[in-house]
């Protein structure tokens, strides 16, 4: 396994512990035996970008929790000095189901 592959696996595992977000992989036609969630993560030594779908609101505490687990996961890897960018690409309907707009 490469350092990037190991990082992606570790990040997906860490993010699975955060209530309120899930990876946002791009839509693909093939459903090959592949972890599609790994496509939501771009990792370079200077930037780790993770695309997420919010499944809970409000966003600030959810993203804070996600940022903390990502930062901990990067420690001791070749990516530990990388900037981290969490990108919310969508809000799942379940996140707003019980919330009133403007309330």
What does this structure look like?
With 103 residues, the chain is an alpha+beta fold. The chain has helices at residues 3-15, 59-74, 93-96; strands at 21-23, 41-43, 47-54, 83-91. It has one domain. The chain has three helices and four strands. Strands 1, 2, 3 and 4 form a four-stranded mixed beta sheet that branches. α1 runs antiparallel to α2 (59-74). It is globular and about 45 Å long. The termini are far apart.
Concise account of the structure shown:
By secondary structure, the chain is an alpha+beta fold. It has three helices and four strands; from the N terminus they run H-E-E-E-H-E-H.
Distance N terminus to C terminus?
Answer: 49 Å
Instruction: Name the quaternary structure.
Output: single chain
Low-confidence stretches: none
Q: Using DSSP, what is the number of strands?
A: 4
Radius of gyration: 14 Å
Domains (count):
1
**Per DSSP, what share of the residues sits in E-state strands of 2 or more residues?**
15-25%
H/E element order: HEEEHEH
Core attributes:
alpha+beta; 103 residues
Write the layout of secondary structure elements.
Layout (H helix, E strand, L loop, with lengths): L2 H13 L5 E3 L17 E3 L3 E8 L4 H16 L8 E9 L1 H4 L7
Parallel strand pairs: 3-4
Antiparallel strand pairs: 1-3, 2-3
Helix pairs in contact: 1-2
């Amino acid at each position: 396994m490469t350092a990037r592959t190991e990082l992606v696996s570790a990040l997906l595992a860490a993010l699975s512990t955060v209530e309120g977000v899930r990876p946002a992989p791009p839509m693909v036609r093939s459903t090959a035996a592949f972890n599609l969630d790994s496509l939501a993560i771009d990792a370079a030594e200077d930037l780790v970008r993770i695309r997420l779908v919010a499944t809970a609101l409000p966003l600030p505490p959810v993203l804070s929790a996600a940022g903390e687990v990502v930062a901990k996961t990067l420690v001791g890897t070749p990516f530990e000095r990388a900037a981290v960018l969490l990108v919310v690409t969508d809000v799942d309907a379940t996140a707003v189901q019980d919330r009133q707009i403007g309330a």
